[in-house]
Specification:
Blueprint lengths: L1 E5 L4 H16 L3 E6 L4 H6 L3 E4 L4 H6 L1 H7 L3 H27 L4 E4 L6 H8 L2 E6 L19 H8 L5 H18 L6 H6 L7 E4 L17 E3 L15 H8 L5 E4 L8 H15 L3 E4 L14 E4 L4 H4 L5 E4 L3 H9 L4 E3 L6 H11 L13 H13 L1 H15 L3 H18 L1
Parallel strand pairs: 1-2, 1-4, 2-3, 4-5, 5-6, 6-7, 8-9, 8-11, 9-10, 11-12
Helix pairs in contact: 1-17, 4-5, 5-8, 11-15
């Protein structure tokens, strides 16, 4: 079976799709992954076929405009619309068509525009997959809304996810008409996203971390467990890091991945000063540039990055931005966690970690202050219940196999579809 996996975003959005692709390939399927340009060698390094979807996320995130957009600035989006976003969208739509037009099944990330439209045009089986709970349910609202608003308002809250489709609708409609030979969608159709054959929805999250969807919705929504990509297990620290690890107690890992702020240097100073005040040792990962490299005390060691599955064996706790993948890695390792969210799903993961008893109250990056950050670090390492709860969660996660479950669902649904 030919299967196209289409994803857009940063490392945490791509890594689960590589894991799924390897699982599908091991079952004998012909897999093609459409992803941003900077992940080509990574994907191909795992033996998977790659197709660019016309986007370089690293360059975008590191640009001044990208930092504004990632920080949630609507005005930045408006300023960039005609200059870069509109032509980039059409280029990406054309690339997604090239990626998925011959597929029997299409598995697509929420950030990708056009994958479901391709399925509409070709008749491919559709699987809407996400490493966070974005599927409408009466049980709880979309993750950007804290609390619970009842069975009527909860599903309505998910309409927020469709608003960007209205923003891009003229471009999408022109593409649907010119390339897919489909009718133009009205704004109401775009918001309702009504389809005669809706996509199966795969929530690539541990049901221990995010309780499963209600049984009445189980036919269309499946919480599979995490899609872990177990790479880098043979990684070993370089001599400088080895010397640092051997020089004292296990340090805290601090890294904000690809998340950026308007002033990375200021953020780095706050983090380092917080570590100093808390009297702890820390490994500081600079990621894609969220933390500028500065002079650090002997209690801090700076690295560009390392495989979480290997690095987290050497640390006592983790502090990060709350990306879905990093959150999963920290909980899988049974580590107390402090989340410093910036935007999108990150505050949700901060609330989940707090609710699970695995870490203290989140501290948003934009409001991070030296004293509060130091207090958070102290609480993180001294509260034994955080470690106990994190280890309980890790035990539950170890019993799950999200990739295997997802492959099973994709095969079963696709085979049934082919038989009708």
């Amino acid at each position: 079976m030919k299967i196209a996996l289409v994803t857009l975003g940063t490392r945490g959005d791509v890594q689960p799709f590589i894991a799924l692709g390897k699982g599908l390939m091991a079952r004998g399927h012909d897999v093609l992954i459409g992803a941003p340009d900077e992940f080509k060698s990574w994907i191909e390094g795992h033996g998977l076929a790659y197709q660019s979807i016309g986007v370089d996320m690293r360059s975008f995130v590191q640009s001044p405009e990208g930092r504004e957009v990632m920080g949630g600035s609507v005005f930045a989006v408006a300023r960039m619309w005609s200059k870069s976003i509109k032509p980039l969208t059409r280029r990406s739509l054309d690339a997604i068509w090239k990626t998925a037009r011959s597929a029997d099944a299409i598995v697509y990330h929420p950030k990708t525009a056009g994958a479901a439209d391709v399925g509409e045009a070709t008749g491919a089986a559709l699987f809407y997959a996400a490493p966070f709970p974005v599927f409408p349910t009466t049980a709880f609202p979309l993750f950007v809304f804290p609390g619970n608003y009842g069975s009527t308002l909860n599903p309505f809250s998910y309409k927020v996810l469709l608003l960007p489709r209205l923003f891009f609708l003229p471009t999408v409609n022109a593409w649907r008409e010119d390339v897919l030979k489909l009718h133009r969608l009205s704004p109401l159709e775009a918001l309702n996203e009504a389809r005669s054959d809706p996509a199966v929805q795969l929530c690539a999250v541990s049901p221990t971390v995010v309780p499963g969807y209600p049984a009445s919705e189980a036919e269309c929504i499946q919480t599979t467990g995490y899609w872990f990509l177990d790479e880098g297990q043979d990684w070993v620290p370089d001599p400088a890091l080895s010397a640092f690890l051997e020089d004292g107690d296990p340090p805290i890992y601090i890294g904000f991945g690809s998340m950026t702020t308007g002033d990375p240097s200021s953020l780095a100073h706050i983090v380092v000063e917080g570590v100093r005040r808390a009297g702890v040792r820390a490994i500081l990962a600079t990621g894609w540039g969220a933390l500028a490299e500065i002079n650090v005390p002997r209690t801090v060691h700076v690295i560009k990055g390392a495989p979480h599955i290997a690095l987290f064996r050497h640390v006592s706790a983790v502090v990060h931005h709350g990306g879905a993948g990093t959150t999963a890695a920290g909980l899988r390792a049974g580590l107390p966690t402090l989340i410093c969210p910036l935007a999108v799903d990150q505050p949700f993961w901060g609330r989940r970690v707090l609710s699970l008893g695995c870490g203290p109250k989140p501290q948003p990056i934009k409001r991070l202050q030296r004293r509060q950050f130091a207090e958070g670090l102290t609480e993180l390492v001294r509260t034994e219940s955080y470690r106990h709860c994190a280890q309980e969660v890790a035990t539950a996660i170890a019993e799950e196999n999200g990739v295997e479950r997802a492959v099973e669902i994709i095969e079963t649904v696709s085979q049934k579809r082919a038989a009708t």
